[in-house]
Write a structure and sequence with these properties.
Blueprint (H helix, E strand, L loop, with lengths): L22 H15 L2 H20 L12 H61 L5 H27 L2
Pfam family, one: DUF1003
Keywords: Membrane, Transmembrane, Transmembrane helix
InterPro entries: DUF1003 (IPR010406)
Length: 166
C-alpha cells in the first residue's frame, strides 16, 4: 500500500468563531478615534509621552531602564498604533463619504424636483399670458364704453333733432 501524503489531499476547513460586531457602534468609535487623532491635543499628548519615555529610559528610574536605546519597545508601540489607526481613519473616511453621497443624492433629488416645479410654473405663466391676450383689459373696456357712449349720445341727438322737425 502506497504511503499516504497528507498534503496531497484537502484537509478540513477550520472556521474562526464569528464575532458579532455592531457596525454602527464600531463606526462611531472609529470616527471618534479619527477625530481625536486629528487634534493638536493628541499631538501634544504623544509628544509628552515620547519625551517622558526617552527621558526615563536614558536616565533610568531607580536604575531601571525598560527600553534602552534604540527604544525598540517604543517603536513597537508606534507600529501597533499605526496599524490600528490607519484602518480606523479609513473606516471613518468611508462613513463620511457615504454620508456625503447620501447628502449629494438628496440635494440632486431636491434640485430635480425644484427644476420640475419651475418648468411647470413657467408653462403655467406662459398659458396665462396667452389667455390674457384673449381677455379684455380695463383700458380696453373703458375705451369701448366711451365709444359706445359717444355713439349713443350721437343717436340721442339725432333722435332729438328728428322729433323737432315736424
Amino acid at each position: 500500500m502506497p504511503e499516504r501524503n497528507p498534503l496531497s489531499e484537502p484537509g478540513e476547513r477550520r472556521r474562526l468563531p464569528r464575532i458579532a460586531v455592531d457596525t454602527e457602534t464600531f463606526g462611531r468609535f472609529a470616527e471618534g478615534v479619527a477625530n481625536f487623532m486629528g487634534t493638536a491635543k493628541f499631538l501634544v499628548y504623544m509628544t509628552v509621552f515620547v519625551i517622558l519615555w526617552v527621558t526615563f529610559n536614558l536616565v533610568g528610574i531607580f536604575g531601571f531602564k525598560w527600553d534602552e536605546y534604540p527604544f525598540i519597545l517604543l517603536n513597537l508601540f508606534f507600529s501597533t498604533q499605526a496599524s490600528y489607526s490607519a484602518p480606523l481613519i479609513l473606516l471613518a473616511q468611508n462613513r463620511q463619504e457615504m454620508r456625503d453621497k447620501l447628502s449629494f443624492d438628496e440635494d440632486r433629488r431636491i434640485a430635480a424636483q425644484s427644476r420640475a416645479d419651475m418648468d411647470f410654473l413657467a408653462r403655467e405663466i406662459a398659458a396665462i399670458r396667452m389667455h390674457l391676450g384673449d381677455l379684455a383689459t380695463r383700458d380696453f373696456v373703458r375705451g369701448e364704453l366711451r365709444t359706445e357712449l359717444r355713439e349713443l349720445g350721437d343717436r340721442l341727438e339725432q333722435v332729438a333733432g328728428d322729433e323737432e322737425k315736424p
